[in-house]
Amino acid sequence: MDVYDVIIVGAGPAGITAGIYAQRARLTTLLLEKLGVGGQIVVSDLVENYPGFQKISGSELMQKFEEHARSVDLRIEDEEVIEIRNGDEYKSVKTYDHDYKAKSVIIASGAASKRLGAKGEEKFIGKGVSFCATCDGFFFRDKDVLVVGGGNSAITESLLLAKIVNKVYIVHRRSELRAAKILQERAFEDPKIEFIWNSVVEEITGHDTVEKVILRNVVTKERSELAVDGVFVYVGLVPNTGFTDVGKDDNGFIITDENLATSAPGIFAAGDCRTTMLRQVATAVGDGALAATSAERYLSAKQRSTES
Ligand SMILES: Cc1cc2nc3c(=O)[nH]c(=O)nc-3n(C[C@H](O)[C@H](O)[C@H](O)COP(=O)(O)OP(=O)(O)OC[C@H]3O[C@@H](n4cnc5c(N)ncnc54)[C@H](O)[C@@H]3O)c2cc1C
């Protein structure tokens, strides 16, 4: 039976970086990815805040990450992890086809877009409701769309949509944005973007596709209707952490210490899947490097204790 030094779950920026560090530390390493190498950022048309690249698409950036990982012979398998068990001797990492064994595990499984929770949202997914402007923006050429959210993703994606569509309404539940100031400035200057403040989407309606939304002003409680052809949702993240029972916060993000150790010895977490203030490529990369180094230290300490 093969026992890996480290198994990494997820091939986004955090997992790939952890894999590169682990390989260079000469740990036997396996990276498991359920969808395709790259993680969330592959859907982003433009990344401008990852040092070394003034402007690059998410997919191109992650292609470079993958090339780097392949150059150090990192083993990457297309498999979904469905359970991690923390045994005394080793950890068991189960997928649909295998039950892998490892001395340590790095969970870098990231997060997915949160649903809005508005009436009609589920019904119109793929028929006007989208979570990815880069993927679906093209279908709304010269039409009117609504973006929901006020963070970096919402504003970046609105700026992209404004180049394609006729009009972008951004509805935000507060009276100010959370996005980086440079993005806010661009959005405020864009003639195609109009903000609807202090408001939430109550319902999305239409026949076969989205035709209008019903908004509610959270201050005045007034309801209003807005005709739009598409709704793009950027209201936060849900962590991909259902396969592990390590300690989590109320929203399901994994709690770690400053060296990225979880509540289970030998299991570490890196990137968007953990409780942290900022979820970006740069922070995921830093986490990946730290988690792999922590795993290496954990394995060395374990080795020393068995020898003594
Ligand atoms: C639209 C959009 C725009 C963005 N723009 C920027 C930007 O401009 N700059 C920036 O720095 N950041 C940006 N981000 C954020 C950035 O994408 C994330 O912070 C970053 O990708 C987190 O990396 P990660 O490796 O932690 O997780 P992820 O990128 O989420 O990768 C996790 C990987 O784990 C895999 N996985 C999940 N569960 C399992 C499982 N059970 N088994 C196997 N594999 C699994 C997933 O398929 C995924 O590939 C953007 C995000 C979005 C959605």
Topology:
Elements: E1 3-9, H1 13-24, E2 29-33, H2 58-71, E3 75-78, E4 81-86, E5 91-95, E6 99-107, E7 111-113, E8 129-130, H3 133-136, E9 144-148, H4 152-162, E10 167-171, H5 181-189, E11 193-196, E12 199-206, E13 210-217, E14 223-227, E15 230-233, E16 237-239, E17 267-269, H6 281-307
Parallel strand pairs: 1-2, 1-6, 2-3, 6-17, 8-15, 9-10, 9-15, 10-11
Antiparallel strand pairs: 4-5, 5-6, 7-16, 12-13, 13-14
The chain binds flavin-adenine dinucleotide.
Main features:
single chain; 308 residues; alpha/beta; FAD/NAD(P)-binding domain; elongated; binds flavin-adenine dinucleotide
CATH topology of the largest domain: FAD/NAD(P)-binding domain
Gyration radius, to the nearest Å? Answer: 21 Å
List each distinct ligand once.
flavin-adenine dinucleotide
Uncertain parts = none
Please name the CATH architecture of the largest domain. 3-Layer(bba) Sandwich
Average predicted confidence as pLDDT: 96
Number of individual domains: 2
Supply the number of helical segments. 6
Distance between the termini: 25 Å
Overall structural class, as computed from helix and strand content, comes to alpha/beta
Largest sheet: 7 strands, mixed
Q: Give the total of beta strands.
A: 17
β content, as a range?
25-35%
Shape: elongated
Strand and helix order: EHEHEEEEEEHEHEHEEEEEEEH
* Relative helix content: 25-40%
